[in-house]
Specification:
globular; six-stranded mixed beta sheet; about 220 residues; alpha/beta
């Protein structure tokens, strides 16, 4: 998995190449280890993966979790059949997906937010975890337009439990129309395992279902 055909050196501070072809880049107090087993993987896309990490990860750490990991690993793996997945500070990316969707570089923003979240055995719902990650992609993404990625307009069949972009838009509405800082508070409670359904009422003055009802009545953000 760590076999990489060495190319020209990248003009990034702190770059070094290991004996296994991994690239270790240190910048802004963070270290990213990059490896790929796809010799045909686009050098341009690789550089975008790396640069996006250093653009967004320090911002997410500052906004949500200053204690997040300082060392992260990116692996481009031909054996991986999904889009991207994160576990224990490692993000695995599908080269097939990135070849087919080279503009979807903010998949990085979503995935590294999962590292920042660090909820462990979360006491909260999965839809909220993924909704927060997509909210963060919407807020901090470097080029969502290139992937034609945007928050969807509300539809009658939508629910806050739909997760990802649908939940993210609901969260954006709460931040804009109800109470700024709610996402930060939810994120912190999920991380320290103090989250309960009552938190919505404590934070915004309304229960979750009441918030959704009000959102449906006036969903503009």
């Amino acid at each position: 998995m760590n076999k990489l055909i060495a190319g020209a050196c990248i003009a990034l501070a702190g770059l070094s190449l290991t004996a296994h072809g991994q690239e270790v880049i240190s910048k802004k107090g963070y270290t990213l280890t990059y490896s790929s087993n796809d010799a045909a993987f686009s050098p341009e896309t690789k550089e975008k993966l790396i640069s996006t990490f250093f653009k967004v990860y320090p911002k997410l750490a500052k906004e949500y979790n200053p204690k997040t990991l300082r060392k992260v690993e990116f692996i481009v793996d031909t054996a991986y059949k999904g889009v991207a997945a994160t576990h224990n500070g490692k993000v695995v990316y599908s080269p097939v997906w990135l070849k087919q969707h080279p503009g979807d570089i903010d998949v990085v923003t979503h995935e590294v937010m999962h590292i920042v979240q660090d909820y462990g055995r979360s006491v909260g719902p999965g839809w909220l975890t993924e909704g927060i990650a997509d909210y963060v992609r919407w807020k901090f993404g470097v080029d969502n337009a290139a992937a034609n990625w945007k928050l969807p307009e509300l539809k009658p069949e939508h629910s806050y439990k739909n997760s990802y972009r649908i939940t993210a838009r609901f969260l954006a509405w709460i931040e804009s129309k109800v109470k700024k800082g709610t996402v930060q508070r939810l994120d912190a409670a999920l991380r320290d395992h103090s989250y309960t359904a009552a938190l919505w009422k404590e934070q915004t003055g309304s229960h979750l279902d009441e918030l959704w009802t009000n959102y449906v009545k006036n969903p503009q953000i």
